[in-house]
Amino acid sequence: MLNQRWLGRKCHHCGAEEGEIHSLGCDMETCFVCGRQAITCYDHCVYPEDGRLRDEFMNGDRYPYIITPVFCRRCLEPYPELFHTDDWDIVVPPALRGDVLCKGCHEFVKAAREKARD
Q1: What pTM value is reported for the model?
Q2: Among the four residues 12, 31, 39, 83, which has the most C-beta atoms within 10 Å?
Q3: Nearest Cα to 77, choosing from 116, 103, 47?
C-alpha cells in the first residue's frame, strides 16, 4: 500500500495525476515497448527524421503516470538531493552503480573504501 504522503503527487513535467496518461511530449513518459524515455525512443515512439511522434505511439498502449518514489539504496532516504561526482565508478561498487545513493551514503562508502585500502 502506498504511504499516504505520496498520494496527490503529480507528474512534475506535465501535471498528470496518478492513473492519467501523460501529456504528449512529456519527458517522463516511457516507451510502451522498451521502457526508455518516449521522447528519445527512435525505435518505437519518435521518427528520427523530424522528431514527430509515431502513429504506433499515438495509438499504442501508453502507460499512465504511476507514482514511483525514489529512495537512497543504502539508507532509504526518500527523494535524496541529486549531486555530481567524478568518482562514482571508482567509489561505488558495481552492484550499486545503477542505483541512487544520497550524498551522505556516497561519502560513507567512499570513506569505508579508503579505510579498507589502508
Answers
A1: 0.57
A2: 31
A3: 103
Burial 79-90 (b: 16+ CB within 10 A, else e): ebeeeeeeeeee
Domain segments of the chain as ranges: 1-68, 70-118
Q: What is the pLDDT along the chain (118 residues), one digit of tens a residue?
A: 455 555 667 888 999 998 999 998 888 888 888 888 888 888 877 888 877 777 777 777 788 888 877 899 999 998 888 899 999 999 999 988 889 999 999 999 999 999 998 8
- Residue 34 corresponds to which cell in the numbers above? 522498451
**From CA 64, how far away is CA 62, in angstroms rounded?**
7
- DSSP assignment string, 78-110: BSPPP---TTHHHHS-GGGTTS---HHHHHHHH
The residue with cell 551522505 is 104
